[in-house]
Amino acid sequence: MDTSEEDRQLGELGYTQKLSRSVGGVSSFFLGFSVISATTAVFSGFGFGLSTAGPAFVWTFPLAVAVFFVWALIAADLVVKLPLAGYAYQWTSRLVSPNLGWFTGFAGAVGFISGFTGVAYVLSGYVGSLLGIEMSTSSQILTSMAVVLLCVLINVYGVRLATILNNIGVALELVVTLGATAFIAIVAFFVSNEHQGIGFLFSTGAAGDSSSPYVIVWLTASLGCIFGLLGVESAADVAEETKDARRTIPRTMFLALGVASAIEFFMYVVFLLVIKDPTTLSESASPISDLFAQQVSPWFSKFVIALALTNILVCVLASMLVATRLVYAMGRDNMLPGSHSLRRVSPTHKVPTTAVWVTGLVSLALLLSALASEQTFSYIVGTAALGFFGVYFLTTAGLLVANARKRIPQGPAGVFDLGRMRLPVYVLGMVVFGLVMSALLFLPDFRANAIVFAVTMGLAGLWWLVVLRGRIARAEAGPKYVLANVENHDPAAAPS
What we know:
By secondary structure, this protein is mostly helical. The protein has 21 helices and no strands.
């Protein structure tokens, strides 16, 4: 589709094209893939799964893929109808109500910002491990802050630079991560001959002795695999910067999910089979690093970790990019405090500069909270999954209402469409997203995260009750405000 036609269609929704529509199919796929980040997922999820449910945790991974496939179906169906920055915020605001859109968008911002902040913190920990130094909390925070600031500067410069660097990082991930995983498998099976048999993948390890039924332990371990696929919908949030978004994004979304899932499962299986001492490794703080050190050498382990850091860095970069578009979209609709500034786009770089800086500053504030309490910080970043699944659940619930009211618009011919499968998919989504949300809210291991998330959403509720509800009722926020003000050409005249 010609970009001028996409600009015209954007205008029909109340916006003018201010962002740079420069993201092609490859960059769209790489963006979604890097937010999922197979390397980050496996490096952070492997130890949790192994220590929680033993090697058999790997068979929870297909369940995780199924959950996200349901969400990808829903998101792909919506992005062809409303290809707008802000993805689920826009979908729920326009198809149901801006009130629901507010809570959906806020939950998404919580998910992305706390998520990439946590990844930056993980990255700084690996830097210390790579350099062979034990980093203090303050040193790790300073390193994390430097990572966040670097990503802010790259994102401020423009989406083209961010996607180019992201593409390079993903290309390295595909080549190096897969290569290193295949290499350690060759060493274990054909050189040292020190590896586990296939039956090991079905063993429960020490988890079999748990006082809880193993099926509960096993399902708890599935959350580690679920965390590793968060953000599959990321490409939808940069729809206004994607060429031929209606056709491109559904393809790249499914491709990112498929490729990331295949790579993660391959890595999980290989890493389990090349374990020499299961008991020691399940207690390790850095099991992946130890695997490479035991099977090859400590130097090879450091080399792999060094390259993996680039993958983790682009995960932070891409996740921040997506988060800023959500903040920008909500500011553009006058939904946030300071919307007058958040909606501004740099005419030179075609980037929502203020939204980028504000997103970065929120992340830095979260990192500084670790100085007061590392435990509190871990609870804050632990809300990421709750934020994402809050979006999935609220969006799907809203879509059931919209579908009953026949408010789901028809997409153009020749693009992805759920058609008659829409209602069954929505019902299935409510079930699976509800189950995951329930686990994240009520399982003892995650209860503290749930409390932090509830308090955070409570603050969002307070803003809505005191200010935003009135704005929406007066058509001073949300889609009606946008259509009345035609992209806020006179933002000074509107309250913010």
